Amino acid sequence: MAREFIVPGQIITGSGALDMAEQSLAQLGKKAMLVTDEMMIQLGNCAKVETALKNQGIGYTIYSGITGEPTDTMIEAGVKQYLEEGCDFLVALGGGSPIDSMKAIGSLVKNGGNISDYMGKVIDVPMPPMAAIPTTAGTGSEATQFTIITDTKKDVKMLLKGKVLIPDLAVIDPQFTMTAPPRITAATGLDALCHAVEAYTSRKSQDMADTFALSAVKRIFRYLPAAFHDGKNEEARVQMSIAALEAGIAFNNASVTLIHGMSRPIGALFHVAHGLSNAMLIRECLGFALEGAYDRFGELGRCIGAASDSDTDQEASEKFLQAIVKLTEELETPTLEQYGIEKEAFFQVIGKMAGDAMESGSPQNTRRDITQGDVEQMYKNLFQ
Question: Is the torsion defined by CA of 209, 215, 217, 223 positive or negative?
């Protein structure tokens, strides 16, 4: 069966990537809106991108209104500024939130309307050119056709998609990830791991995506602990940036599954950062998913050296799950309770969260058949 494989138009990686990308930025337009957050300005990262734009004589305006995971109101403000400033292309600097925001802004600047109009639809509209410069090694948003925006009226995280959302240029420069603190390094790194594992074990997996997914999993197990324990370890930062890109390419072409499906409602209702809520769900969700894909999870166990060729697929799968649990513990992943979420408040909305998770379609990509009742039980198990 023929399958399409989609990647960004141009990818520049490694130390000095931003310098190399200057001429590519100049080809995108004459005035950029730089979508970022206040932390990127304070850390001096925004100034580096401003210098690159100035070097090419590119005009720009800065939209730093991304104050957390993106909402429809943040997107509306960004669209307004883009139009008022007369911009003709977009640059995002930051983690997944600024990059996702850039995509959503881009989908509206030529077409109008509200971002919620695209819920449940494929976005296929004229877009301005876009460049993504990630500062965390995790979301992979620089390589995907997806964006996640919260509908503030319905308290729902909308998973929106369309090939037009893939950036024209992805600049993966490790200088920007060096400033990420350990907890962000851990959460985003585990997010990338979820992307790769889910892509490899998805019903929609394909051979080319498998290649990227396996490479990402091996790279993350080797380098994420090093980046967590020593943020100045440049080799670990470089390798994690590559792993996040690989994982993004993998799930962009194979889709995510149960973890992401259950994670989004937690983020929407309890304001847990996306990568962290994924990390909290890994043990429970993969424990459920193993039974439907022992061959796939077994291969993951062997590829990281947790299992051997003499192990059965089931044994190798269980050893892989044990290795992931050990990694989350090393990275000090909190439980929902440790994070401060009250059990009673959580249980009151389990029905809504399970319904929203199933409506997204992601859990159904899991190779083991799944029902809303299964999802509700897994949510309950998080407090046991």
Answer: negative
Q: What is the pTM of this model?
A: 0.92
Element (H, E) at 21: helix 17-26
Are 370 and 258 a contacting pair, CB within 8 Å? Answer: yes
Task: Out of 3.40.50.1450, 1.10.150.120, 1.20.1090.10, 1.20.950.20, select the CATH number for domain 182-381.
Answer: 1.20.1090.10
Taking the CA atoms of 240, 241, 247 and 250 in sequence, report the sign of the dihedral they define.
negative
Q: Residue 274: which pLDDT band, with cuts at 50, 70 and 90?
A: confident
Three-class DSSP category at 12: strand
Residue 233 CA, chain-centre distance (Å), reads: 23
Provide the β-strand partners of residue 131. Answer: 91, 169
| Non-local CB neighbours of 76 within 8 Å, separated by 6+ positions | 114
- Measure the CA–CA gap between 136 and 379, rounded to whole angstroms: 28
Distance CA 277, CA 266 (A): 7
